[in-house]
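Response to reviewer comment R2.3. The reviewers asked that we include at least one raw input/output pair. We reproduce the pair for RGS10 protein here without editing.
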Amino acid sequence: INDSEGHPSSSHQTLKGTSKWATSLENLLEDPEGVKRFREFLKKEFSEENVLFWLACEEFKKTQGKKQMQEKAKEIYMTFLSSKASSQVNVEGQSRLSETILETPHPLMFQKLQDQIFNLMKYDSYSRFLKSDIFLNHKKSEEQEENSPEAQTAAKRASRIYNT
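Raw output as returned:
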């Protein structure tokens, strides 16, 4: 099935950049540039630790080996969860979380806390990010690139190549 211009059409159009970021927080967090811009925004809101904690938990899930897990778990705990943490996140149940859990780490040990932070970002800072100058300016510069004569010429060349 092709669209009016002869390009394959699909319900899963390949959105890029800000268009993709605007569809969901998940899409934003899958894009390194999106994470960079979101961090920039959260830094201005004094809540960058939320996305840093979320990213640390994602990385932690991929950790292999008990020793490495213990080290990473301790690092996450000391950085984000302990009462003396340098970048403390605000999660429920934090007061009940003690260093004893660090002795027997498992990939999903921070999942509930990570989900809380994700929801906090999703229902709070993400919607503000989509209205922020950081997002809107990036979106504008993306649109200017897409509409530049070079981009249009390349697109026309590509369509001639594929439509012959």
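The radius of gyration is 21 Å. Residues 1-13 have pLDDT under 50 and may be disordered. Further pairs are available on request from the corresponding author.
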